[in-house]
Structure formats: C-alpha cells, structure tokens
Amino acid sequence: METKLIEIQPSNSIPSSHKAIELRPADIIFFVILNLALLSAIAIPIYAFIAKRKRASFGFKPPPKFICHRCQYFSDNSYLKCALHPVTVMTEETINCADHRLINS
C-alpha cells in the first residue's frame, strides 16, 4: 500500500491558488482613467438627453417688442402701469401707440 500525504492548512490561511494580486502604480492610474472614461461615456449622453428634453419642454420665445417700458407715461407700479392706456399696456396693441414719448435722458 502506498501512503498518501495530506496537506493540512489552518482554516484562516489563504490557499496558494487565491493569492492577492499586486498592482503597480501605473496599473492603478490606468484603471482610474479607464473608469473615468466609462463613466463619462455613460453620463454625457444622459446629460445631453435631459438637457434636450428640458429645452423642448419650455420652448424659447423671443421677448415681445413692447415699447411701454421706454415711455414716459409708463411706471413700474403694479396697480397702474400706464396713465394713458391702462387696458392695453404691455400688449401687442402698444407697438403702434400714438401717445408714446421717450423718456428724456
């Protein structure tokens, strides 16, 4: 009969097949750059999609060309904006206002 050797290891030791991998600083830098590249490749399209949806939902309208804010009869009072035309102040009807007078600068 042949005798077989049985290798006994303590329960808290690591088997020889599961040794830790030692990383060099160059490897760590490579993995950090690789992870940043992958993260940005995922984040940039998501950000672009969200920004595009936000722009589409609000829509851009150019500001109206009202001349009331440059008129001497216009006041920034919330009760009475225009002394001459309180109903049509800051509407499209004021574009051709006959009573418009520029503020003396």
Verbal overview:
- It is a single chain.
- With 105 residues, the chain is mainly alpha-helical.
- 5% of the residues are buried.
- It is built from one helix and no strands.
The topology string of helices and strands comes to H
Q: Could you tell me the number of beta strands?
A: 0
Report the helical percentage.
25-40%
Largest sheet: none
The proportion of strand residues reads under 5%
Shape: rod-shaped
Structural class: mainly alpha
For the terminal residues, how far apart are their CA atoms?
A: 118 Å
Query: Overall mean pLDDT score?
Result: 79
Low-confidence runs (pLDDT<50, min 5 residues)? Answer: none
- Radius of gyration, in angstroms, nearest whole number: 38 Å
- What is the number of helical segments per DSSP (H or I, 4+ residues)? 1
In short:
With 105 residues, the chain is mostly helical. The chain is built from one helix and no strands. 5% of the residues are buried.
How is the topology of this model organized?
Layout: H1 25-58
Name the features.
rod-shaped, single chain, 32% helix, 105 residues, 1 helix, mainly alpha
